[in-house]
Amino acid sequence: MPGDSRPVGGPGLKQVRRIVTEIPGPRSREQLARQRGLVPAGVGAALPVFVEAAGGGVVVDADGNSFIDFGSGIAVTTVGNSAPAVAERAAAQLRRFTHTCFLVNPYASYLDVCEKLNALAPVPGEKRTLLVNSGAEAVENAVKVARAATGRPAVVVFDHAFHGRTLLTMTLTAKNRPYKHGFGPFAPEVHRAPMAYPYRWPTGPEHCAEEAADALEDLLDRQVGADNAAAVVVEPIQGEGGFIVPAPGFLPRVAEICRARGILLIADEVQTGIARTGRMFACEHEGVQPDLITAAKGLAGGLPLGAVTGRAELMDAVPAGGLGGTFSGNPVACEAALGVFAEIEANDLVERALEIGDTMLDRLTDLSDAHPVIGDVRGRGAMIAVELVEPFGTRVPAPDLAGRIARRCHAEGLLVLTAGSHSNVLRFLPPLSISDALLEEGLSILGEAVAKEAAFAV
Ligand code: PLZ
């Protein structure tokens, strides 16, 4: 727009933390008042400041506040906001054509994205990829493929799971409020097994993997009937549920249990996929090879794109016309995804995620030693969280404390998000484009916020 004086985002944006108003500031509050009259109350915001620009490791709001970004728009802008290769490729595509519908006139960039994902996904053998618009749509389509390929109806998921907000994926999701309450009846043929959650396993973390796998086996064989089960759907690290890293050995056991029964394993990597955890896909940490794998958030640098990659014979079980969607695999989103892969390769971002994880784990482990309200520190790569509990050595979830720490961070210019079935987890998902200086500064702000709020908590 000629005369548009709004700031430009991307890595060129000044990489500083700067707080010049109360949070939210007056301009954001004005927009929030508008929002209340325009948007339903059911749409909330974790940090309601209205954004003007973002890039590198910062988000800048309408009042001129610049926040250190430990959220990446919920694990989406993994390569950074308006990353050069993403912005350039998407902009060039916008000028060529914006849409044809892949079901009407296909285009090569869709195939280029599929070729990349088929090469990268830890699924064995020959592969096919389907592109869709969102994470929920990816999970939903993975289940459709699994049902069509096996001819079986049932789907097994885990406690603390989050798989989306559509009817099927909301049913797959564990937490009632706010995701499910009032939205039933739910989809049939969904069964839930316990997750191997080491910190909260009743008999202790050392028994967690084995006992949780036994519970899955029992659910499949005794309640569902293994030959009724199409698929087990699992997040290799649970996201919204609180960055729960399953006890080591659990995921390989799940894969084995599925294989022995002809049940397909669907890895939901919508949050963990595309370099976030220090591998292209988080399944790789334990050498697990799912039959189908989903990706979305980090895939296209912020443009809406989801994907299901699966074994060719399963994906091809659905006849022509059975899969698709008007906008699915939009050409601008496909170009953005190709930009994401280019950024990851050019800047060695898989390695960068590991470095960020090491820094965060070191600092947060020290913080948890100093403050017993941090009951657990966990995660992989640039996907790390702390679980807050009541003081005096309890494991009682402390959601209010987590909320207070988050708000204190926000007021100081650090964007953090909460998570967890008990809303008592603070999660950290910095873009991989963040500088070491901003990462360290963010961790210091967090440390001060924990110290201050923990002092009030005792
Ligand atoms: N599977 C593992 O994490 C989305 C949800 C934000 P969509 N998580 C963020 C919110 O409150 O709605 C997610 C996920 C996993 C599926 C999804 C769903 O992805 O792109 O939001 O549909």
Can you describe what's shown?
By secondary structure, this protein is an alpha/beta fold. The protein has two domains: 10-82 and 349-457, Aspartate Aminotransferase, domain 1; 85-346, Aspartate Aminotransferase, domain 2, CATH 3.40.640.10. The protein is 38% helix and 16% strand. The chain is built from 13 helices and 15 strands. It has helices at 26-38, 72-75, 84-96, 108-120, 135-150, 167-172, 205-224, 250-261, 312-315, 331-346, 349-370, 399-412, 436-457, and strands at residues 51-55, 58-61, 66-69, 127-132, 154-158, 190-193, 229-234, 264-268, 292-295, 306-311, 374-380, 383-388, 414-415, 417-419, 425-428. The chain has a seven-stranded mixed beta sheet, with helices on both faces. It has a four-stranded mixed beta sheet with strand order 1-2-3-13. A hairpin with a 2-residue loop joins strand 1 and strand 2 (58-61). The longest helix has 22 residues, at 349-370. The protein starts with 25 loop residues before the first helix and ends with a helix. The protein binds ligand PLZ. Residues 74, 134-136, 139, 162-165, 235, 239-240, 268, 270-271, 296 line the site of ligand PLZ. Ligand PLZ binds at residues 74, 134-136, 139, 162-165, 235, 239-240, 268, 270-271, 296.
